[in-house]
């Protein structure tokens, strides 16, 4: 070890004022923490299986195994129907890993360090959520790319397709706050996964992802009609293969706002309490 | 400005059935090292976490760098550095990335954060490993990175929770050097440790915590004096003269005590121990031994080691029920 002299604090100006103001500081901190999450993602590409291989397998299984039976033979028609639905399901499932990672970070004590630093309480969580954009983008690219290899065709146009991707990412970013909250509440990262599956499975199967709502029994239909996944799927279907969009879009946006309004404060509070 | 850079009063914290802190008062003078000692589960980590704004106490107040920890935690965080008991480095990030991230969160510009990272990595002997993910580091390397991380912001007050656990002896002494150099530059350091030797070497003052309470607060020498008192130790060159020497030395023993053969094995074998009241006893002992014609190979005044102090302090304090119950659960 060298005897290099490390100078004492040489910060110019008021040490209590964040550089560039509180808001700029919070944005900077969140970006720095998002970068941290991205580095972790790049270091462990196998952690992307749930947004790459998994949706592909679902797509293959449902198209070739059940597709014929469900539509009476027309697999291509079923693929056109199924892909927007599976996209929505994959977005919801894609958020689970975030809660697991945050839970593991807290258990390991990595967050203790962040909590001893002068950053906004929300910054570590916001940073992690922002970095999740990459995962939702990956889902969209993989689904549309692999889907097109299987024969899926966008029937509307480039702009609606881009809008579908934008909405998908936006929905993913809102929905994942549930996972963040669960990640703060339960003890182990395994429990995060278990709890989130209990939530995501009924939401994705109790919807119009795999079959038309009209084929379902009445009591189930009432659940399907309030299910946010249903309306996300409706919107994406409209944007990718045509059909009415506005109604589903409005409800989807309302759900997104609602998810943020409820789960962001819940997650922050749970994070603050977790010692 | 107050001379006290850490001041805590009546800290209490309960986890379920365990009263981890049961009314802890602490104070640390600016520019000094405060050693916090205590057996496992004494409440050291809990106290550090309260002072470092990670944990809200159930009761009590605390000030760090003159700022209320509970009312203005954000201002406290700008002035402290923390290395927790368990390594909190990010395993997927490289050494450099870990330190740069902390610099950025401390509002350094990215350029300054990078420069600071290079400086610290060099200082902690991690330059070669700087570009490797921390998960490839050995335990000691992680610990050093963790220590470097607490110094990124040139903190005024540094909290180190068992900073040298898991370091080899050479690296441990390096770390002592780091602590001393921080103090030379005006920082104050609160460190917990299991090594009494470490507290003895570094701390200006020592707090002993046991079952969530402070059972002693003194300088290292003060603690030693308080528990065992001074001992004069004489080793006659000729074992046959031991009885004579015992008789001579009895005269200088502190009231109510007497000279005796040291029953400890090893280096102290064959030596005579005499509890004495003050260090002037040596001035009486020397001429008396000369007059009696007793030659000796070793003669000196000794304070008890901190180990002895520690054991006598913690053994005399009985365990409250709750903690005993908790320790059973651990088995
Ligand atoms: N989060 C927690 N939940 C429950 N009990 C806790 C928690 N943190 C600490 N404790 C309990 O509080 C007591 C004090 O713990 P603390 O970690 O402060 O001890 P310590 O002096 O640092 O011990 P060690 O030398 O083993 O690190 C212990 O009995 C411990 O089991
Ligand atoms: Mg501890």
Mind explaining what this structure looks like?
The complex is a heterodimer of chains A (275) and B (331). With 275 residues, chain A is mainly α. Chain A has a domain at 47-95 and 132-274. Chain A contains twelve helices and no strands. The two termini of chain A are 35 Å apart. The model of chain A is unreliable at 1-12 (pLDDT under 50). Chain B folds into two domains: 4-225, Rossmann fold (3-Layer(aba) Sandwich); 230-302, Alpha-Beta Plaits (2-Layer Sandwich), CATH 3.30.70.2250. In chain B, strand 9 and strand 10 (213-218) form a beta hairpin. The longest helix of chain B has 16 residues, at 169-184. Chain B is elongated, with a radius of gyration of 24 Å. The chains are: A mainly alpha (275), B alpha/beta (331). The complex binds adenosine-5'-triphosphate (ATP) and magnesium ion. Adenosine-5'-triphosphate binds next to strand 2 and helix 1 of chain B. The site of magnesium ion has 4 residues of chain B, from helix 1. Chain A: Residues 46-274 form the ABC transmembrane type-2 domain. Chain A: This is Transport permease protein. Chain A: It holds the Pfam family ABC2_membrane. Chain A: GO terms for molecular function: ABC-type transporter activity. Chain A: Its main location: membrane.
Give the topology.
The complex is a heterodimer of chains A (275) and B (331).
Chain A: H1 22-43, H2 53-71, H3 75-94, H4 96-108, H5 110-115, H6 123-131, H7 133-150, H8 158-185, H9 189-205, H10 218-226, H11 228-241, H12 246-273
Helix pairs in contact in A: 1-6, 2-3, 3-7, 3-8, 3-9, 3-11, 4-8, 4-9, 7-8, 8-9, 8-11, 8-12, 11-12
Chain B: E1 4-15, E2 18-29, E3 33-37, H1 44-51, E4 59-64, E5 67-68, H2 73-77, E6 80-83, H3 95-105, H4 110-123, H5 139-150, E7 157-161, H6 169-184, E8 188-192, H7 196-202, E9 205-210, E10 213-218, H8 220-227, E11 230-236, H9 242-250, E12 260-261, E13 272-276, H10 281-291, E14 296-302, H11 306-315, H12 321-330
Parallel strand pairs in B: 3-8, 3-9, 6-7, 7-8
Antiparallel strand pairs in B: 1-2, 1-4, 4-5, 9-10, 11-13, 11-14, 12-13
Helix pairs in contact in B: 3-4, 8-11
Adenosine-5'-triphosphate (ATP) binds at residues 15-16, 18, 20, 38, 40-46, 85, 326 of chain B.
